[in-house]
Amino acid sequence: MTPIIRTVAEMRQLARGWKAAGGVVGVAPTMGALHDGHLSLARAAKAECDRVIVTIFVNPRQFNNPDDLTKYPRTEGADAALLATVGVDAIFAPLPDEVYPDGFVTSVTVSGVAEPLEGVLRPGHFDGVATVVTKLFGMTLADRGYFGQKDWQQLRVVNRLVRDLNLPVWIVGCETVREADGLAMSSRNARLDPASRRIAPALFAAMAAAARTIRAGGDPAQTLAACQDRVLAAGFSSVEYIELRDAASLGSAQGLDHPLRMLAAAWAGGVRLIDNIPV
Ligand code: AMP
Q1: Which residues, in sequence order, are CB contacts of 40 under 8 Å at separation 6+?
Q2: Cβ(63)–Cβ(87) under 8 Å?
């Protein structure tokens, strides 16, 4: 079985030994309840690095909703079994007190790219993400960090953070892994009841159709409005946003001549789903 490391001191010692031997250390931060999307990050890291650490830490500071934190699935035994099949070198799964000991008062705030969309709807979320990612890189001595495009805004925030703070970590963004019906894999999908699970793929289907329409010259505002109607008609209880944004800055989309991203958040049966696709 893969060793499970609980303390920063042990994690550092292990990583220092690997690096002293010239090893490149790849790290995939996760909150556990692992699925194929997470495993794709671990596999990409395996292919490109000498040593791979998957971190499992349900970071209390990135939950703006206490109920979401309480209900977040925790499945460490199954996670370890899955990671053993990939052959990662270590699982770093510290307890909250190890990450945030008494007296902890420092926070990393990214402006700009972290402000719209999830930044508005989940106040404090990206501060929590930026802080924990900075800490996890310091704890694991990461050379390369693996993140999913599933959380596109998070990926852009981490890219910005690493550049702005001169962190010596190369960020790799891995493609979104989907179920056969198109639903983006997510730990939160486990909370969908059967009826909501049936309607959930409609989000990606509507977005993909809208992206095709926009690429073919359709009016973006009208197309996005129709997309939202289609998601609601499928049975989603609400749509928080479906927007077209500059893919890098997440600022408003200026013309169709440079990369754009369509991003969405919507609720199905009490579960908040997010997705995004290139346009
Ligand atoms: P989480 O455990 O949800 O915090 O996700 C940990 C990492 O896995 C993040 O970088 C996510 O973007 C990535 N991830 C989650 N779901 C997927 C997916 N379906 N495809 C690719 N990457 C994913």
Answers
A1: 148, 174, 175, 177
A2: no
Site residues for ligand 1, CB cut-off 6 Å: 30-31, 37-38, 40-41, 147-148, 150-151, 174, 176-177, 184-187
Distance from the CA of 137 to the center of ligand 1, in angstroms? 17
What number of residues does the chain have? 279
Nearest CA to ligand 1 atom 17: 37
Q: Nearest C-alpha to atom 18 of ligand 1 is from which residue?
A: 37
Contact partners, residue 47, CB within 8 Å, separation at least 6: none
Q: How far is the CA of 252 from the centre of ligand 1 (A)?
A: 25
What are 250's two structure tokens?
A: 């997440």
Residue spans of alpha helices (H) in 29-151: 36-48, 66-71, 76-86, 96-99, 118-121, 125-140
Strand partners, 245: 252, 261
Q: Is the pLDDT of residue 255 over 90?
A: no
pTM score: 0.98
Q: Are 90 and 127 in contact (CB under 8 A)?
A: no
Point out the ligand 1 atom lying closest to the alpha carbon of residue 177. Answer: 20
- Is residue 38 part of the annotated active site? The answer reads yes
CA distance 191 to 168: 37
Q: What tens digit of pLDDT does each residue of 63-91 get?
A: 999 999 999 999 999 999 999 999 999 99
